[in-house]
Design brief:
Elements lengths: L6 H13 L10 H10 L4 H8 L14 H4 L15 H13 L2 H10 L5 E3 H8 L2 E2 L2 E2 L1 H13 L4 E4 L5 E4 L2 H11 L5 H19 L9 H24 L1 H17 L3 H12 L9 H16 L3 H17 L3 H17 L3 H17 L3 H17 L3 H17 L3 H17 L3 H18 L2 H17 L3 H17 L3 H17 L3 H17 L6 H17 L13 H14 L13
Helix pairs in contact: 1-3, 6-8, 6-9, 7-10, 10-11, 10-12, 11-12, 12-13, 12-14, 13-14, 14-15, 14-16, 15-16, 16-17, 16-18, 17-18, 18-19, 18-20, 19-20, 20-21, 20-22, 21-22, 22-23, 22-24, 23-24, 23-27, 24-25, 24-26, 24-27
Length: about 575
C-alpha cells in the first residue's frame, strides 16, 4: 500500500467509491491508481472523469481506455457529475482563442510524449510553407502556447529549455490532429527525427558504453519508444531501423525482457528486410537478448545468422562484435577452444579497425576465459592490459571491471589483502554508477575474500546484498553463484546436509541452463566438496535439490539471516 497517499489519489478513490460503492482501494490496485493519477497530471476534473468509469471498468482496465475516452463527448453515463463536462468545454473555449497557426502547432505537438527540446519541436512540428520554414513565426506560436498554459516549460541543469503537454491536453490535441489529412506525415516525421538522433549518437559502437550517448537516449526515451510503437503499426521498415539503433541501449541498461520482446516481435513480422547492416543488427540483438536470458540454444540460432549476414555484406565491425558474443556463449557452455578462437579473431578485427576500446572489451573476455581455466598469470596480464586501455580513455566502467577481475585473481591466489583493496575500489565505482549486476559480482568476490580470512559474518552480509540484486535482476546464473557461496558458508558452520542440498541444487540449475562450472570455480569449491564427501554417506542419505530459482531465493535469505554464530566455524584450507 502507499503511505500518505497524495491528494490526487484520494480524490480518485473518493469519486470512484461514490460512483461504485463496491470499489475498494487495496494493494492490488494501488500502483495502478497512482499511475492513472500521474497520467492525468493530477487534474481534479480529469480524475473525476476517469473515476466515473469505475462502475464499468476495473482500475487495471482504466489506463487502457482513458486516453481514448476521457475527453469524448459521446459518454452517456448518467453518473458523471455535471462539472466534469467543464473540462471539455474549457478546452474548446480556450482552443478557439488561439490563432490558426497556434491551433495547428498544438495539434502537431501531440505526436510528442513526455518532454521534448525546442529543436525537436521545430524539426517535427514546424509548418512548411512555399518550401521554407518560418522560424520566427514558430517561436511566436510556441510562446503563445506556453503563455496560455497549453504547453509546460522547464529548464534543465544544462540551461536548456524542455517542453511538454499535460496528458489531458495531449489527448485533446491528438483528437484535433487526427481530424487532419496530414496526421500521418507528422507522426512519420516524429519517428524519423528520433531515428536520426539515435543514428547520430550511434549507440551501436557497442563494445563500450558511451555515457554521453546513454544520457541522450535516457532523456529522449519516452519519445523514442512512442515513435517505435507508432512505426510497428504504420511502417515496419522504419520500426526495423529504430529497433536496430535502440537495441544496445536496452542491452546495456538491463532492459532485457523489453528488448527481446520488441526485437523478436519485429523479426516475426511479415516484412522481408533486405540484406543489410540493419538486418544483421536485429539478428544479433535477438541473439544477445536470448544469451542474457540464458537461452543459449536460441542465441546460437540468431547469432550465426547475424554472422553470415555481416560476412556477406563485409561488415567487419559486425563480424567482430558477433564473434565476441559467440565466444562468450562458448565459454559458458564449456566450449573453451571454440571460445578462444572467436575471441582471438574478434580482437584481430577490432585491431584492424584501430578500435582500442572494443579491443579492450574482447581482451577482457579472453582474460575471463583464461581465469575460468585457472591460467591466472596469463589472465592477470590480460586484465592489466585492459586496465591500461580503459585508463587511457578515462573509462570508469572499464577500469572498475578490470579491477574486479584483478581482485578476483588476487583472491584465488590467496592474496586477500590485495584482493580486498581492489574489490573495495570497484565497489565504490559500481555504487556511484548505479550498475547493479557489476555491484553484485564485486560483492560475491568480496564475500569469498571474507571467507578466506575467516570473517563469515561479513561474508554473509556481502552475499545477502548480492542476492537481493540477483533476484531483482532475475539473473539465474548469478543466483547459482550465490547458492554455491552460501553452501560454502554452511560447510564452514558444519551444516553438511544443508550445504549438500545447496550444491546439488546449483548443479541441477547449471545443468538446466547448460552452464558447467568453470575450472577455477571448481578448484575454489573443491575443499568444501571434499569435506562433504567425508561427512555424508550417500548410501544413508539421499539429498534432493530445490527445484527452481523462485523456491531457492527465500531459502537463501533465511540461511544468511539465521546461520548459527554460536558454533565455531570449521577451519578449511580454502584454495
Amino acid at each position: 500500500m502507499i503511505h500518505n497517499p497524495p491528494p490526487a489519489l484520494q480524490l480518485f478513490v473518493a469519486r470512484a467509491q461514490a460512483i461504485n460503492p463496491q470499489f475498494t482501494f487495496n494493494k492490488d490496485n494501488a500502483r495502478t491508481i497512482l499511475t492513472i493519477c500521474q497520467r492525468l497530471d493530477g487534474l481534479p476534473l480529469a480524475l473525476e472523469l476517469a473515476a466515473a468509469w469505475s462502475n464499468t471498468l476495473s482500475p487495471q482496465m482504466i489506463p487502457d481506455h482513458i486516453d481514448a475516452q476521457i475527453l469524448l463527448h459521446s459518454t452517456s453515463s448518467t453518473n458523471l457529475p455535471k462539472d466534469t463536462y467543464v473540462l471539455q468545454a474549457t478546452f474548446d473555449a480556450n482552443y478557439q482563442l488561439l490563432n490558426i497557426s497556434a491551433q495547428q502547432l498544438l495539434a502537431r505537438l501531440s505526436v510528442f510524449a513526455g518532454d521534448w527540446s525546442l529543436e525537436a519541436a521545430w524539426m517535427v512540428s514546424a509548418q512548411i510553407s512555399n518550401g521554407s520554414t518560418e522560424y520566427t513565426n514558430f517561436l511566436n506560436q510556441i510562446q503563445t502556447l506556453v503563455s496560455h498554459s497549453w504547453t509546460q516549460s522547464s529548464i534543465t541543469i544544462e540551461g536548456t529549455m524542455r517542453y511538454k503537454l499535460l496528458a489531458t491536453i495531449r489527448s485533446y490535441a491528438a483528437n484535433h490532429l487526427h481530424k487532419q489529412q496530414d496526421w500521418y506525415f507528422y507522426h512519420h516525421r516524429h519517428a524519423q527525427y528520433y531515428l536520426q538522433l539515435l543514428e547520430h549518437i550511434d549507440m551501436n559502437k557497442d563494445q563500450t558504453t558511451d555515457q554521453f550517448a546513454l544520457t541522450i537516449v535516457v532523456q529522449e526515451y519516452t519519445n523514442t519508444r512512442t515513435a517505435l510503437e507508432w512505426a510497428l503499426i504504420h511502417d515496419t521498415s522504419l520500426a526495423y531501423e529504430l529497433c536496430s539503433t535502440l537495441w544496445y541501449y536496452w542491452y546495456v541498461r538491463g532492459h532485457i525482457p523489453e528488448g527481446r520482446y520488441r526485437v523478436e516481435r519485429i523479426l516475426r513480422s511479415p516484412y522481408q528486410p533486405t540484406l543489410s547492416t540493419t538486418y544483421g543488427r536485429m539478428q544479433r540483438a535477438a541473439g544477445c537478448f536470448a544469451y542474457k536470458q540464458d537461452n543459449y540454444e536460441q542465441a546460437r540460432i540468431y547469432l550465426p545468422t547475424a554472422l553470415t549476414i555481416y560476412q556477406q555484406i563485409e561488415d567487419i565491425r559486425g563480424i567482430a562484435a558477433t564473434m565476441n558474443t559467440l565466444g562468450s556463449i562458448g565459454q559458458l557452455l564449456g566450449h573453451n577452444q571454440q571460445a578462444t578462437e572467436y575471441f582471438e579473431h574478434s580482437i584481430c578485427l577490432f585491431k584492424q579497425l584501430e578500435d582500442q576500446k572494443a579491443t579492450g572489451a574482447c581482451l577482457f573476455n579472453l582474460g575471463h576465459l583464461l581465469h575460468d581455466n585457472a591460467e591466472y598469470e596469463q589472465a592477470q596480464a590480460m586484465f592489466e592490459q585492459c586496465l591500461s586501455i580503459y585508463t587511457d580513455f578515462a573509462n570508469p566502467e572499464g577500469c572498475a571491471s578490470a579491477l574486479l577481475s584483478l581482485g578476483s585473481i588476487a583472491k584465488d591466489l590467496k592474496n586477500y589483502q590485495k584482493a580486498r583493496h581492489l574489490l573495495n575500489q570497484c565497489l565504490h565505482v559500481w555504487r556511484e554508477l548505479n550498475e547493479p549486476l557489476f555491484l553484485a559480482a564485486a560483492l560475491e568476490e568480496l564475500g569469498y575474500v571474507e571467507i578466506g580470512v575467516g570473517n563469515l559474518a561479513q561474508a554473509r552480509m556481502c552475499f545477502y546484498e548480492s542476492l537481493q540484486i540477483r533476484q531483482d535482476q532475475n539473473d539465474r546464473l548469478g543466483m547459482i553463484w550465490i547458492i554455491e557461496g552460501v553452501a560454502v558458508i554452511e560447510v564452514m558452520y558444519h551444516h553438511y546436509h544443508q550445504a549438500q542440498k545447496l550444491f546439488t541444487t546449483a548443479d541441477q540449475l547449471r545443468h538446466d541452463i547448460h552452464t558447467p562450472r568453470p575450472r577455477s570455480e571448481q578448484q575454489r569449491l573443491e575443499p568444501f566438496l571434499h569435506v562433504l564427501k567425508q561427512r555424508i554417506k550417500e548410501d544413508n542419505f539421499t539429498i534432493r535439490p530445490i527445484q527452481t530459482i523462485g523456491q531457492v531465493a527465500p531459502h537463501l535469505f533465511d540461511l544468511l539471516n539465521a546461520t548459527d554464530d554460536s558454533m565455531s566455524p570449521a577451519v578449511i584450507q580454502y584454495s
